[in-house]
Structure formats: C-alpha cells, structure tokens
Design a protein that fits this description.
Layout (H helix, E strand, L loop, with lengths): L1 H5 L4 H26 L6 H7 L14 H26 L5 H9 L2 H5 L6 H5 L8 H19 L8 H23 L3 H15 L5
Length: 202
Amino acid sequence: MMSIMQKNTTPSAAKSRKEISHDRILEVAARAIRRSGYDGTGVADIMKEAGLTHGGFYAHFASRDALLAEAGSRAFAESAALASRVVAAAPPGLALQAIMQAYLSPEHLSAIETGCPVTALGSEMPRQTPEVRHAVTSHIKEMVDLIARQLPGWGQPQAHEQAMALLCALIGTTMIARAVDDPALSEALRAATMKQFTPAAG
C-alpha cells in the first residue's frame, strides 16, 4: 500500500488525472447538449466550463462529433441510472406508477439539462451522426425493457408493445408540456397521460 501511495508522479498517476479531466468534460457536455442542443454546444464553451484549456480538447477526443456521441451516452447512462433508482425505491407493485410520476413530475419538466436526453434532444436526433443515433437507440431499448419488466405480462409481446406505447407517451407528453407557455395546459397534459396509462400498471 505504501509503495502505491508513493507513486504520485508515475505515468499511471498522470493517466488518472487525464481520466478525471475526461470525465469532467463529459459531465459538462452531457448537461450542455440537453440545455443548448447538439448544434448549440461548442467545444470552447464546454472546455471553459470544465475549467480546462481549449487546446487540450484533442488530448481527449478525436473530434467534436466524438465528444457529442460520448456525451450523449453519458447523458443516457445518467437517465437510465435514475430510472433504475426510482424502480428500486418503489413499493412492490408500484414501480410503473413511480416511473410515470417521476418522468411527468414538475421537477423533471424543469430539469432539461439533467433530465431525460430524449425529451431534450428528440427533434435533433434524426440529423445526428450514426454514433449519436446508435447511443439514442440503445438507450430507448433499455427504457422499453425497464418499463416492460414492471408490467404483469412481462416476457409477452403485449407487454413489450405496451411498454413502447407508454414510453412514447411519456416522451411526447414531456416535450409538449415543455413547449407550451400555458402552465395550466402543461399540467393538464401530464395529468391526462397519467390518467390514461395508470390502468396499465395494474
């Protein structure tokens, strides 16, 4: 243990510092793409917010597209981890309602830069690189599977279809509820989706 502690200037220590910087860039970029969109996210701004020099960017990423793809994967992983925590904390038989309540909550509605990246970036994704779209596709499949596992008919085609429909409803409702400038309408949209899909939890 002492010999490891003393090797503060070895290449492995330098690599560790690089990994920390890399993770910091991804953390900032994952928030930035949800806040400003793919096209509104610039390398210089990300590096500045991360507390790093612009010139150091290419020590971490081959291109801006590579950063966007990896930042998207980071955002999706954060979203999936949060959904898994919601499921784990829910009382038995109430995981699906918990997912819906969390996804359609006012907190998620206002948390664009830390919420589900699909709702923040959905309209931009068809125009992104194959790497970015692959990350999106993988995340959506994971979310469908997570929802399907909470349904009574899990493992059956009907449950998978129901999960896809519910996920589409959650994403679409959130996007529209964020788009309108009428708080009452925004609330009504979220309440309507909850009402329509709550029986599915039974």
